[in-house]
Amino acid sequence: MGTTNLDRLFKPRAVAVIGATARAGRVGRIIFQTLLRSDRPVYPVHPSEGTILGRRVYKRIEDLPPDVDLAVIATSAEPAVEAAEACGRRRIPFIVPVAGGFSETGPEGQALEDRLRRAVRDYGSRILGPNTLGVFAPRERLDTIFVEHGDRALGLGGGVAFISQSSSVGVEALGIESNLGFGLRAFVGLGNKVDLDEVDFLDYFRDDPRTTCVALYVESLPNGRAFLQAAGRAARVKPVVALKAGRTPSGAAAASFHTGRLAGSDRLIDGAFRQFGLQRVSDEEQLCDAARVLSEVAPPRGNRAAIVSPAGGYSVMATDEVERPDAPVALTMSRLSRKTEATIRSVAPPFSSMRNPVDLTASATDDMTIAALSAVLEDEGVDIVLCMALFAPPGISDSLIRRIAGLASGATKPVIVVAQFGPFTDGHISRFHDYGVLGYPSVARGVRAMRWLVERAQIQARLSPGP
Fold it and tell me: What is the pTM of this model?
């Protein structure tokens, strides 16, 4: 597939909503009303309604104007198949049937899905789904999702292309992560993958200049070789992070029931992911955490980590996390130079720790933190820095957010922040994100972010073009 094939899916000239209705709370009403926020024509289609939200209703798909590039079908399964066939005959390029009730339900549903597949073959349209929430592309102001999904918090857009076989996993994870600041390029709910699948979107987002990281949630990989090849092509040019569910026998059985397809051997998948440069995570929080940092922060040149903190206990925990012997990617605590230690000694209380981890104690101030962080960033023995931005010390103010961001933006080394401040933690981390700094609400999540960056650097070195 060429990378331009999906342009009209994300940037349609006009959208038709088949099954749009004036009845509040119905899926067709929600999708139609949401799409009206975009700056493109949206045409409602319903056989018996005259107007919906003041817009003229088209009685038949055949009556639609010629500029429709995307048809969202908001009906139950069997009528959705008939509508998809009509859209195919109408040569509408992209069709999104949101309904479930297909192969995941048994033989009758499988027969309906086979009809959808024939519609693609016979007419040349492309189908996303069925059993999907569709697509959400903030900068294109395109949103077919009819459940709550943090769309307002994600509205500014960003670089993460989030491809999810389960729409619910994707939107719930994004909704939670948006509280911390998340730059979304696009969300794609694959659903039952009757036509378009991971390969199509991996190839598209690989060459999309706005995409800086691809995040994947998958349960079944019926075409595993093609998937790995596409993921490997993408991983050569941008990070690809994946959550493959169904790792245990019971989980694999549940995945098979959910998708109507068999899940593959987890051990085989784990090795294949590593070979092709995918960064594997174990849950939806890690998927979003990894995508956040990999999409916005350049990898370090090495794995030597330094820690700056106003609390000794957090310094100890962070050091333990950095040097975890069972970690999949090794980090090591850097040894600070005498010059760096002397600089810290000149600004910190005498009872502070000048060595790595740098513990400024609860006497830390904004100025002290910035001076210590600056000295550590200038140290040739440091590759990546974890800065504990804890706002309980009386000498620390909210202005530290802006000052850390100003220092980090001019640095040649990654700075990851761990911020905590009771009920205000998410707000502070979101403000860090607004200033271009990645923050996490716990030591473990912050150190994992560092590890993902180091892993990405290793993947780049291994996959870089050579003889």
Answer: 0.93
